[in-house]
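Q: Here's a chain of 126 amino acids. Please give me its 3D structure as C-alpha cells.
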Amino acid sequence: MRIGELARRTGVTTRALRYYEEQNLLTAERSGSGQRHYAEDAVDRIRLIRRLYAAGLGSKAIAELTPCVIDGKATPELLRRLAAERDHLDRRIADLVHTRDRLDSVIGGASSAMDTGVPCPRDADA
C-alpha cells in the first residue's frame, strides 16, 4: 500500500510515517519512481509504535524493542530492557493515578463547596 493509504488506515500523518522511517521504526519498498510501498503488516506495526510512544518511550528505545515485541524473540539483554521499560511505565502509571486522585479530591471539595453555596476561591475573584 502507498503512504497515503497507510496514513488513512492508521490515523497517522504522512509526515509521521516518514519520520518513523527515518528513525528505523518502519521500512518501505520503493517503486522505480521512488514511491513508498508498505506491506500489509505495516498497519499493525504503526499501531504498536503509537502505543509505545504513548507509553512514553522514545524512538531509539522503540527501534531497539520493536523487533522482539513483534516476533517474541529476545536476548537476555533485551528482556532486561523490556522489564526496565515496563517498570518505568508502572512508575508513570502510579504517578498518573496519584495525580488523578488529587484532582478527584479537588473536584470533590469544590463540589461540596458549591452544594453549600460557598464560592471556590477562584469564583470569589470573578
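Q: Can you summarize the key feature?
A: The mean pLDDT is 85.
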